[in-house]
TrEMBL record:
<keyword id="KW-1133">Transmembrane helix</keyword>
<keyword id="KW-0472">Membrane</keyword>
<protein>
    <recommendedName>
        <fullName>Cation/multidrug efflux pump</fullName>
    </recommendedName>
</protein>
<feature type="transmembrane region" description="Helical">
    <location>
        <begin position="6"/>
        <end position="26"/>
    </location>
</feature>
<keyword id="KW-0812">Transmembrane</keyword>
<feature type="transmembrane region" description="Helical">
    <location>
        <begin position="66"/>
        <end position="85"/>
    </location>
</feature>
C-alpha cells in the first residue's frame, strides 16, 4: 500500500508538470491565433481588450478539458489496471 501511495504522489507531480507545459504552450498558440484574428479586423476594439476577452473565455473551457485529460483519465486508467492486475 505504501508503494501505491508513493506512485500516486509521483504521478501527481508528473501530471502537474505536464499540465503546466500543456497550458503554457496551448495558451501561447491560442494567443497567436487571437492576434491574427484581431489583425484581420482591428476596428472592433483595442488589442488589449480583445486579447483579455478572448483569452479569458478560452481559458475557462481549456482548464476543464486539461484537468480531465491530464489528471483524471490517467489516474483512473492506472487505478483500474492496478486493481485488475492485483485484486481480480
Amino acid at each position: 500500500m505504501l508503494a501505491f501511495g508513493r506512485f500516486f504522489i509521483l504521478a501527481f507531480v508528473i501530471c502537474s508538470a505536464a499540465y503546466v507545459v500543456l497550458w503554457l504552450s496551448l495558451r501561447a498558440r491560442r494567443r497567436r491565433l487571437i492576434l491574427e484574428e484581431w489583425k484581420a479586423n482591428p476596428d472592433e476594439m483595442s488589442l488589449h481588450a480583445y486579447l483579455d476577452a478572448e483569452t479569458t473565455r478560452w481559458d475557462r473551457a481549456r482548464h476543464r478539458t486539461l484537468i480531465v485529460l491530464v489528471y483524471i483519465l490517467p489516474m483512473c486508467a492506472v487505478t483500474a489496471i492496478i486493481y485488475l492486475t492485483n485484486f481480480h
